[in-house]
Each structure stands twice: as structure tokens, then as C-alpha cells.
Amino acid sequence: MTAISSPERRAASAAPGPVSRRKTRGDLRSERRAGWAMAAPAVLLLLVFLIVPVVLGFVLSFTNARLISPEPTSFTGFDNFVRAFTADPTFFRSLLNTFAFAAVVVPVQAGLGLVLAILVNQKIRGAVAFRVVFFIPVVTSIVVVSILWKFLYQPDGLINSFLDSITFGAWQGTAWLNNPSTALAAIIVLSVWQAVGFHMLIWLSGLQTIPGELYEAARIDGAGTWRQFRDVTWPGLRPTRVFVLITITIAALGLFVQIDVMTQGGPVDSTSTLVYHAVRMGYRQQQIGYGSALSLVFFVLVLIVALVQRFLTRDKD
Questions:
Q1: How many Cβ atoms are within 10 Å of 12's Cβ, its own excluded?
Q2: Which of 142, 158, 200, 279 shows the smallest number of beta carbons within 10 Å?
Q3: Which domains occur in the chain, in start order?
Q4: How far apart are CA 294 and CA 80, in angstroms?
């Protein structure tokens, strides 16, 4: 018999055999099962609260389904969409109000948030306190904020009283939420005030990622405050700018809570939005099929707006 040398014996003992390979495959299967078990609750929640409602809403939008009805649900094709664009004037008013609200809120809220972020980013005493003060409305429930502002907007509320005081009685007051010409503007002011603190913090985080050496180099080159903002701050805020723009736009197009709490779409549909109109038709008037069709229209519009924004803000390089 040929004797096996010590190095060969050690190499043979170190080589993996069939048993160790089976253990490796078993370990991988065990790890995969453990991973699926950990992901299962999240996947289940996504299916129940996101995927299933989306699919169900898409299917119902092509039916005449009602929340409570003795008649069975039947397929109606595109009748709900034809009704929305031809026989529902509230739909067009809601669509106009939605885009008017977004057209004002997006630039005003983004611009005001940037101004506040630049101010609180200065190295001055009390800057942290100002950040907290501006952020308090964000962490306050929007329902509570809407109720408080509804009292402020009443004819004998604080806003009219303040205007009466500073005008020495010349201001007669107005019912801000009961006047079709001022109701939507009043909700715009509330919405900007409530959410500007959140976007201030987003802008602030972007400002703090810009290296201080760039500002120092700009000052050495003789750049003033405006040139520093134009050549250093604004280009450095590009990723933040895209994020703020998209988030504000989506939130503005989805306006609902303020309308539901303060005006219920009135007066004369002057504050009705597309989301509020869909909820009102789907649940309060129990026309689930038509409400689902309005929701699908809203989804397509938001998708188009988001894609256009993404195209306009894409990296040209």
C-alpha cells in the first residue's frame, strides 16, 4: 500500500464532502425561508391595503357598482368616463380647482420654504428655536389645524377682528369660507402655512450638504450674496429641488382633508377638488363605480404630471 503523505492527508480532510455540501444547500434554503417569513407581514399588508384596492378600483371603474343596491353589479364599459367628461359639470369645476390650487401652492410653498431654510441656516442665536416654531404646524394633525382655521375664518373670527383693528373700523369683515371668490384662497393660505415647515427642513438639509469651501472660494472671487446664491447654492440644491417639487405637487393635487373639514366642496363647488368629488360620489352618494372611475382619472393625471416634472428636471448630462 502506498503511504499518503501528511500534506496530502490534510488536503483530503479539508476537501468538502457530500455531507458538507448538503448542509450548505440546507443552510441556504433555511435562510431563504427565514427571509420570506420576515418579509411576509410587509408583503401581506401591501397586498391587502395597496395592490388589492388598486386592482379592485380599476375593475369597479368599468361597472355600475353601488355601495348598497338591490340590483346586481354589471359591466358598463366606458360609461362612467363618458359621464365624467360630458354630463358632470362638478367634475370639470373640481379639476379646475385642483390645478388652480396646485399652480399657486407649489411655487409659493417651495419658495417660502427655501427662504425660511436660508434664514434659519444662518449661524445666529435662536436658529434652532425658529426651526421648531416653523415645524410645529407640520406635526399637528391637519384635521385639528383645519378646525382651528375654520374658526379663524368666521365672520366674527380672529382674522376679521385683526383686520378691523388695523384699519380702524374701515374693514367690515367677510365670511371667507362662505364666499365663492375667497374660499379657495383661504384654503391655499392655510395649506401653505401648515406644510411650509416640512419643506423648510428638506431645503435646510440640502443647504447643509453644500461644502463651505465653495462659498469661501466665491467670496475670494468677489461674489456677493446674490451671486453666491445663483452660482453655488442654487446648483447645489438640484437634487433637493427635484424632490421638493414632486412632493409638493403630489400633495397639492391630492387636496382633501381641508376641503372635507372646512367647506365640504362649497360654496357652489368653488372648493371642490377631484379627490373630494371622487370620495363624495363613491361613498356619500354610494356610486362606487363612478367614484372609482374618477379616482382612475386622478391617478392618470398625477402620473402624467409626475412624468412631465421628471422629464423637465432630468439630468441633462
A1: 10
A2: 158
A3: 6-60 (no CATH), 89-312 (1.10.3720.10)
A4: 8
* Among the listed residues 118, 102, 67, the one whose alpha carbon sits nearest the alpha carbon of residue 305: 102
Q: How many CA atoms lie within 13 A of 209 on its CB side?
A: 13
CA-based torsion, 21, 23, 26, 27: positive or negative: negative
Contacts by residues 213-220 (CB-CB < 8 Å, ≥ 24 positions apart):
none
Q: Could you write out the DSSP letters of every residue in 3-49?
A: PPPHHHHHHHHHS--HHHHHHHHHHHHHHHHHHHHHHHHHHHHHIII
Closest by alpha carbon to 252, among 92, 97, 101, 114?
101
What residues of the chain score a pLDDT lower than 70? 1-23, 315-317
Residues in a beta bridge with 75: 63
Q: CB under 8 Å to 26, separation ≥6 — which residues? A: none
C-alpha span between 276 and 267 (Å, rounded):
14
Task: Note the pLDDT of residue 2.
Answer: 47
Report pTM.
Answer: 0.83
Ramachandran area for residue 301 (φ above 0: left; ψ -120 to 50: alpha; else beta) = alpha
Instruction: Give CA 283 to chain center in angstroms.
Output: 23
Nearest in space to 202 (alpha carbons), one of 114, 108, 141:
114
The alpha carbon of residue 194 and the mean position of all alpha carbons in its chain are separated, in whole angstroms, by: 14
Asked if 132 and 271 count as a contact pair (C-beta separation under 8 A), the reply is no
Q: What's the CA gap between 98 and 276, in Å, rounded?
A: 10
Q: Quote the pLDDT of residue 20.
A: 46
Rg (CA), the chain: 29
Q: Which of 250, 252, 293 is nearest to 83 (CA)?
A: 293
The per-residue pLDDT for 152 is 92
pLDDT, residue 18, reads 46
Q: What is the Cα–Cα distance from 203 to 243, expressed in whole angstroms?
A: 10
